[in-house]
Amino acid sequence: MRTLLFGVVTAVVLAAAPVIAEATPPVRQDVGAQADPVRIMPLGDSITQGGSIGGYRLDLGSKLRSSGRAVDFVGSLADGPSSMPDRDHEGHPGWTIAQVDANVVSWLRTSTPRTVLLHIGTNDMYGSDPGGAPNRLGTLVDRITAQAPGADVFVATIIPISFADQTVRTFNAAVTSIVRAKAAAGKKVHLVDMYPSVSVSDLPDGIHPNAAGYAKMATTWYNALLSVPGSIGDGTQEPPPDGACAATPRVTGSWGGGFQGEVTVANTSTSALTGWTVRLPLPNGHTVSQIWGGTASGSGTVTVKNVDYNGSLAAGTSTTFGFIASGTGTAAVGTATCAAA
């Protein structure tokens, strides 16, 4: 994707927007078919590629593995930090819908994905024919479903562009109608409303998300995948331990002056939770400067409470919240505790 610099914008992290998934009735695969990892193709342009941080693929892969899913990202490219467990994808920087369409059959034949995550069209918005982009996308989706009729194809509305918002909105409205029509015709295509998940504040150059924006995209993809049985397998998590809830933190990225982390909150009891509170120890001198999926207070050991949309957890289910900690020194988090609210 062409790089357009509009100055660094400080990210204002918002809670991730709900997912809208338009799905045809899915066909569950049998247990034997799920023995091997589910092959998922992240498909698109530089927003899928995600630069050196791995884009949404980093957090999405973590969420899938944490939920017990055996998955394998597939594609002819590999990008992201060296510590990223699965770096494969088909995110081609600068490419338009037509360029992806010209190559997708070959990629599908080589990688044989079970599930496709498609976010494409951004480069068309400032090309010579943005008005024709929805039809081009429809042709691309038809080509994918013809080559891989058994695959679940998740088609996203594209995230905002700071300088072309109305053009993006017009494209997304047309994409919504196209995907719904194809789903109604019996194709295994599913609409993922990605546009509201990412704010312009999450786009430092007006186009590409920062780490917080990519984390929001990952949550939206994850929720959409969960809504279609079989698209990511059936899950193989071990039974949760006794107790009300558990919090499992991890560092997802670091840089000079701070790091990004994610905490998985799991209901480990046999009854539903209506709220939770996590106490999260941070390294000396670090403070939470941004958070999504929770509200934070205090310093040193930070107290995080759920927000409205993720406080209710059925027995055996989990949610996540993410944060950015500012400070110098080693990027690390201590043992977190969780209590029912």
TrEMBL record:
It holds the Pfam family Lipase_GDSL_2. GO terms for molecular function: hydrolase activity, hydrolyzing O-glycosyl compounds; phosphatidylcholine lysophospholipase activity; polysaccharide binding. It comes from Umezawaea tangerina. Residues 238-341 form the CBM2 domain. SUPFAM superfamilies: Carbohydrate-binding domain (SSF49384), SGNH hydrolase (SSF52266). The keyword Cell inner membrane does not apply. Keywords: Signal. Residues 1-21 form the signal peptide. InterPro entries: CBD2 (IPR001919), CBM2/CBM3_carb-bd_dom_sf (IPR008965), CBM2_carb-bd_dom_sf (IPR012291), Ester_Hydrolysis_Enzymes (IPR051532), SGNH_hydro (IPR013830), SGNH_hydro_sf (IPR036514). This is Lysophospholipase L1-like esterase. GO terms for biological process: carbohydrate metabolic process.
